[in-house]
Design brief:
The complex is a heterodimer.
Chain A lengths: L1 E12 L2 E12 L3 E5 L6 H9 L5 E8 L2 E2 L5 H7 E4 L11 H6 L3 H4 L7 H13 L17 H14 L4 E5 L7 H16 L3 E5 L3 H7 L2 E6 L2 E7 H4 L2 H8 L1 E7 L6 E7 L9
Parallel strand pairs in A: 3-8, 3-9, 6-7, 7-8
Antiparallel strand pairs in A: 1-2, 1-4, 4-5, 9-10, 11-12
Chain B lengths: L1 H5 L1 H24 L7 H11 L9 H36 L11 H15 L5 H21 L6 H26 L3 H10 L8 H19 L2 H6 L4 H6 L4 H23 L9 H9 L3 H25 L8 H23 L1
Chain lengths: ~270, ~350
């Protein structure tokens, strides 16, 4: 069954068209990666789906039975959660307080936190693997990049979304933290959640995601199962490099090897 | 302080204690001054004017309590609460720790209005002129901030700075050109913040502002919390960011304009007090808002009492006192809290 369906979606920011006629269908209960060069419009597209776009959004945007363009802000926040790129605060909020923010769409502005909300917050913190009791009272500004990213993920999970959007969740993380976050996303995606994440590293997208949507200059140029879609021809063209798929001798997995395209046009295979 | 941050019982107990502390502070502040008045006298006078007891004090002493000291102390409490609340709000909405209630050009606008009527000799109209001046400045700031599209925190701050600078320059020009002798002290007193002129009219102005704008703002804690990680993050939690920012800014500006119209621009309370309270409560607003209001009220009651009694018969503008008392208190708090964490 298709979970997320976009049809002729356009986004204009300050009268500049950032997303042009984006149309694709993404299946449910999968980890779908959104890839594309810098400036292709990945963040803009995620923001439009989350309903937080600063620009003008036109076109159709459906998630399962829901017409996202017509839902209320609050209903949308109960269905879709967004983990921003480089979300940051100067306030000395604890991990627990930060994750509790995710309960806002369910509580409204006036409702007070119940035992049920507390349990969901703790559950979310445990799901991302930060389950030491002492950790919950740590102040988020003192955490490492990987820990902070997991806290932001826990905040999104506390929203109890069905669709989880992430904007480059592995940005600024060391390789161990990257693999850790991606395994978690794949696990969440294989369970009850639909995960749609912008991923910079094509090899990580290749080995962790089920499906992929390729964005180039504001247009969706390809989408489908990751191994059928991310071909060396497509990647070479979209990212303007020479990309070759090679087989890892140990694991048998296919990975990309990249070479720069020569500017004078002579080199390259 | 972990208890205060987590336990509801502790939080409620703290609020009750602070309300009692404020009531006691108000009572004792009224007793301080050249004419000897006891705490019992204060309450007898209050009961008398509520029609619950005969007049036990005699005309003169009753007049001192009821016409002079009580309205002044109550105005101080309300102004302190209002400025602290507005400060918390401005800091949350602009995500700027240096934001204060006067950020949107309010105090400069109010000063211009006030100085104009002081010089023209219509002192009776002072609150009205200051209020109008503050609103005109606010309007200019918001037009400037929104003139080129959406209202963002950075643009709001810059627009406020521009309007403040302009109004401040015009005020200085007017003073420099026209002021002589005694009116100079009167004007300087107002510019530095003073409650010397507070009467029952002032009490009504600030209390009505607190009821209309202050009490609803007490319940905006969760919206303010949602701004912690920025606009996109707040929007992703279902908050209508632009509408929330407009209404919160307007409410806190109305509150501030009312305060400024009776007291001039008293510094420190709206800027530093929220930070001091945050060191105790953590950054979440549900507790920060009421505690800031109560501590702001208590703080200004004592600061104003010091301002009028320390160098008797001479009076200091309370704005000087708030900074002289407040800065070391805050520095101590900052140092000890850092040592703990």
């Amino acid at each position: 069954m298709n979970a997320l369906q976009l049809s002729s979606l356009t986004v204009d920011l300050n009268r500049t068209r950032i997303i042009q006629d984006a149309t694709f269908k993404a299946p449910g209960s999968k980890f779908v990666a959104l890839v594309g060069p810098n400036g292709a419009g990945k963040s803009t597209l995620l923001h439009a789906i989350a309903g937080v776009s600063e620009g003008e959004v036109h076109g159709e945007l459906h998630y399962r039975d829901l017409d996202l363009a017509k839902t209320t802000r609050r209903q949308r926040a109960k269905t879709v959660a967004l983990v921003e790129q480089d979300a940051h605060t100067d306030l000395a909020l604890t991990v627990d307080e930060t994750v509790s923010l995710g309960r806002l769409p369910h509580l409204g502005f006036m409702g007070s936190e119940t035992e049920h909300d507390r349990a969901l917050v703790i559950d979310a913190i445990e799901t991302v693997g930060l389950n030491h009791l002492a950790f919950r009272s740590r102040v988020v500004t003192t955490l490492s990049g990987g820990e902070r990213q997991k806290v932001m993920l826990a905040k999104a999970l506390a929203q109890q979304p069905q669709l989880l959007l992430l904007d480059e969740p592995t940005n600024h993380l060391d390789i161990a933290a990257q693999l850790n976050v991606l395994s978690l996303l794949r696990k969440l995606g294989s369970e009850e959640l639909d995960v749609f994440a912008a991923i910079h590293d094509l090899n990580l997208a290749l080995s962790y995601s089920d499906e992929v949507v390729v964005l180039s200059e504001g247009r969706v140029v390809a989408s489908g199962p990751v191994h059928d879609t991310l071909t060396s021809e497509l990647v070479s063209e979209v990212f303007k490099v020479n990309a070759n798929l090679v087989t890892n001798q140990d694991s048998g997995e296919q990975v990309f090897a990249f070479k720069p395209r020569s500017s004078n046009g002579f080199a390259g295979s | 302080m972990t208890n205060l941050r987590q336990s509801k019982l502790w939080q409620n107990a703290t609020i009750v204690c602070l309300i009692l502390g404020l009531a006691i502070s108000i009572t004792f502040a009224v007793t301080i001054g050249p004419a000897g008045i006891s705490a019992t006298d204060v309450w007898s006078a209050i009961l008398h004017h509520l029609g619950l007891a005969p007049n036990p004090l005699g005309e003169l002493r009753d007049g001192i309590v009821w016409q002079l000291r009580l309205p002044r102390v109550l105005t101080a409490a309300a102004v302190g609460a209002g400025l602290a609340l507005a400060g918390v709000l401005m800091q949350a909405v602009t995500r700027n720790p240096l934001a204060d209630p006067y950020l949107l050009g309010l105090s400069s606008g109010a000063s211009l209005g006030a100085v104009a009527v002081l010089l023209l000799g219509f002192t009776v109209l002072l609150p009205v002129a200051a209020f109008i001046g503050a609103l005109v400045a606010l309007g200019l700031t918001l037009v400037l901030a929104g003139a080129f599209g959406r209202i963002t925190p950075g643009r709001t701050i810059l627009a406020g700075i521009a309007v403040s600078a302009l109004a401040g320059a015009v005020t200085s020009l007017v003073i420099f050109w026209t002021v002589t002798g005694d009116s100079y002290r009167e004007i300087l007193g107002w510019l530095l913040g003073s409650l010397a002129g507070a009467r029952w009219t002032s009490v009504w102005i600030v209390v009505v502002a607190l009821i209309i704008a202050g009490i609803p703002l007490m319940f905006t804690g969760r919206i303010l919390d949602s701004f912690a990680f920025g606009d996109v993050s707040a929007a992703a939690l279902g908050v209508n960011v632009q509408a929330a920012r407009w209404s919160l800014l307007s409410a806190s500006a109305l509150l501030t304009a009312a305060m400024v119209s009776v007291s001039g621009s008293i510094g420190f309370v709206g800027l530093i007090l929220p930070h001091a309270v945050r060191l105790l409560t953590g950054p979440r607003h549900k507790l920060l808002l009421p505690l800031s209001a109560l501590l702001g009220a208590t703080f200004l009651v004592w600061a104003d009492t010091a301002a009028r009694s320390l160098f008797e018969p001479r009076e200091l503008p309370v704005g000087i006192v708030t900074a002289i008392i407040g800065a070391p208190v805050f520095a101590t708090l900052l140092a000890t809290r850092r040592a703990e964490s």
